[in-house]
Design brief:
2 domains, seven-stranded parallel sheet, Glutaconate Coenzyme A-transferase, single chain, 25 strands, alpha/beta
């Protein structure tokens, strides 16, 4: 049927899940938004997603029609939520499927974007298994775009076409996310991290310039594995060269594991019918006890700011929600329980405006994503320091050593005021 006919299955008061990553079913979403004048109190669930523009249901005329309840604040809804028209449900990304499965967050309808069917009539969610697996499982009505632009990926993200309530044929290119080219400072960070990653390690690596800098610095490593939340173009050279061969993993050895993908057409084509890549429910990929079964798990995540005790903010700028927790906590904890595992939290020492990101205390209203009790390595362009087993004064000394030089004196005065003689007696940086 047409998209306009399919979305008529959605009624006022329904709770609607929209698939994420670069797999947002935008033809269906637009058709749903076009019904805004006749619908009321439709709750929209979405996670991390990249779209071609702002979400079409985020218009003031539809404020009584659609309530955005985001599990991750992405670009397409960030300003809408900042204005107070929508909200965000705080939850570790790996725990969101449990909200669907136990009925805490009811799912009446799931809108998904699928591949063409194979010879058995199975279609794949392609680049986004993450929350889609549980949402489809729980929904009473599943409406799918069948899209030849979507790669067929294996794992939890496969469903038979007979299980779909409605099908809409589209030919809609996926959003392509350009590969971030690392700056010189980000390259420094990547080199510091790569030096600490041993051969045979299992990688969890994120999105952006710093993760890509790490990947570039790993090209001479051997027998690396991949068990990550998001797969990007950055890992393709390591896969193609055999640097990532997944031979040392204990969980699904020989397979690259992810929950979602975002990148270029090259990545999507590489994924298509590739049995060496498996996409799983985020409740499984991000389960710390699954992660920890692999040896030498190296989790590499970014943050927005950190205080002198090691408290990390990664989801807000002051009181303004910028994103969400994502999988940072899951992989920080999972890597800490892995034999030989290390977690890295990386960031540039200053913002684009030159403001310090290592602070005496977090900005008022900033959310603590990784607590001071969990922080392991912190890395900036000025070095990498290990906070594990260090007391508060020692942590302050170490973090000041990797702050931007122009802020170190100010930070030292703040640390002396806060920690007193325990800080002042420290002469050298503790390695």
């Amino acid at each position: 049927m047409t998209a306009e006919e399919a979305v008529k299955l959605i009624e006022s008061g329904d709770h609607v899940f929209i698939q994420g990553s670069t797999s947002v079913p935008e033809v269906l979403v637009k058709a749903l938004a076009d019904r805004g004048d006749e619908l009321r109190d439709v709750t929209i669930y979405q996670g991390f997603c990249v779209t071609k523009g702002a979400a079409p249901y985020c218009q003031e005329r539809y404020k009584e029609s659609f309530l955005v309840d985001s599990m991750f604040v992405s670009n397409n809804v960030r300003e809408w939520i900042a204005q107070g028209y929508g909200s965000m449900t705080p939850r570790f990304l790996g725990e969101v499927p449990a909200l669907f499965r136990d009925g805490t967050c009811r799912v009446d309808v799931a809108l998904i974007n699928c591949s063409m069917p194979d010879e058995h009539g199975n279609v794949s969610y392609g680049v986004s298994a993450d929350l889609a697996v549980s949402a489809v499982e729980c929904a009473q009505c599943v409406i799918a775009q069948i899209n030849p632009q979507m790669p067929f990926s294996y794992g939890d993200c496969v469903i038979n076409i007979s299980q779909l309530s409605a099908v809409v044929m589209v030919d809609d290119p996926l959003v392509e996310v350009p590969t971030a080219v690392p700056t010189d400072k980000e390259i420094n960070i990547g080199n510091y991290i790569a030096e600490l990653i041993p051969d045979g390690a299992t990688l969890q690596i994120g999105v952006g310039g710093i993760p890509n800098a790490v990947i570039r610095a790993l090209e001479h490593h051997k027998h690396l594995g991949l068990h990550t939340e998001a797969m990007t173009d950055g890992v393709l050279p390591l896969l193609e060269k055999g640097v990532i061969d997944n031979s040392c993993k204990k969980v699904m050895p020989g397979k690259s594991i992810a929950s979602l993908a975002l990148g270029s057409r090259k990545l999507y084509d590489y994924m298509n019918y590739n049995k060496d890549m498996v996409f799983k429910d985020v409740a499984w990929t991000n389960n710390p006890f699954v992660i920890a079964q692999n040896p030498k798990v190296m989790s590499i995540n970014s943050c927005l700011e950190i205080d002198l005790t090691g408290q990390v903010c990664a989801d807000s700028i002051g009181t303004k929600i910028f994103s969400s927790v994502g999988g940072q906590h899951d992989f920080v904890y999972g890597s800490s329980q892995s034999e030989g595992g290390i977690s890295f939290l990386a960031m540039l020492a200053t913002t684009n405006k030159g403001q310090n990101k290592i602070k005496p205390v977090l900005t008022p209203g900033a959310g603590v994503v990784t607590t001071r009790f969990q922080t392991n390595y912190v890395v900036t362009e000025y070095g990498a320091v290990n906070l594990r087993g260090k007391n508060l004064a020692e942590r302050a000394k170490l973090l000041i050593s990797i702050a931007a030089p122009e802020y170190r004196e100010e930070l030292s005065r703040a640390a002396a005021d806060r920690f007193g003689y325990s800080f002042l007696r420290l002469k050298d940086i503790i390695n």
